[in-house]
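Question (not urgent): is this output format expected?
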Amino acid sequence: MKIQKKKILLCVRRSSAEVDFILPLLFKLSFKYDLITIFDNLQAYNSLKDNKEIFLQWKQINNLFYIREKKNNFFYKLLYKTISTNIVRNIFKKIINKFENKLQLKINQNILGLRKFNYNNIALFFLTDSNYSSLPLFFKYKNSKIKIIRFPESVWLVSNKTIEKQEIDLRLIADKYLVPTKKNLFLFGKKANIKIMKKIIFTGYFKYQKWWVDKISQYTKIENSNFKILVATRPFGKKRFQGDFTKESYEYLVKSIMEISSKIKNSLVIFKIHPKNLNTEKFFLLKILSNYKKNWIIKKNHIFKLAKISNACISLQSSACLDMLAVQKGVVEFWLNSTDYRYLIPLKMKNVSVFENEGLILNINSKKELEKVIFRILNKEKLFKNKIKNFNKINKNYISYKKLNKLLLN
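Got this back:
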């Protein structure tokens, strides 16, 4: 008789970046557990589907998935939101505490056929530390032994010097926090007491372990060209702070890259669009690119694959630069630091990205500067040896999967 595996749940809030971060760990755990994935909406599922390599690896280990619909149980969700406000809670605290679990049951009763679901067979529930879903509370109510595991939404490096700081909300239910490096500790704020510290497990970056990079970055065929330029984008907004930079800045950056590429015989520019606001950005990008001959392409492959076959890698201030470095490719960060300084670190003379502050990328602020660097790369000058070395220093201190599995269940 086949022994039924325990189950682990993964809740995806927004995009493929969440799955990309945690999938190597889930892949290792799949030998012991069956995976069930819950997408908060259709957009989150489609984002994963658009990331070809990650989607295929996820399909290999996923047993069941469910896409939540906002219209489901709308009345109960509205009621829960109302009683969750601090004012209502303070007045009716005792009544609300008794009523809350029953209300959660109503909200979540359609998920996975929950009325017939074996809650005792669930061991772990994974979701990001920015996911406010009520599901962890619900599953804890059904089985208090389920461990709620929080992890970062992406591999974005963090610094306590950045203009915008986003601390982890410690009010959210969590049994364990997976933290890549001790540098991230400041995100837990001044409320990180001994009790919180005991929940933290330092893991290293799962997705940058060699076995995983090799698995994802296997050869992919791209149109023939002598010189390939990979560009990892970021979303824009109508005004600065609505996006990571303005629409005008985005247009300048893309046009600059295309004009430089047009000076290189038989070159190809490969665009990898950021998963956030993907359709809005893609529409505008295509509008810009329509003015240029077909020496460009938009690809959905993983950055590992695209970077591996590229001659020059450009990041528009994106954590995708780490993916490029993971396949030992140098990165040019093209970004108008004097104009668009969201998420940048203010130094004496200028604002710099966390990636520049860590010595990982070569920052460029104008088309003129970028052209000089691209032609130096074309002439095979070695510009990034120290940058890659700095990345390799950061990308270490992995916890063993055997040890991590024990810690997750404690």
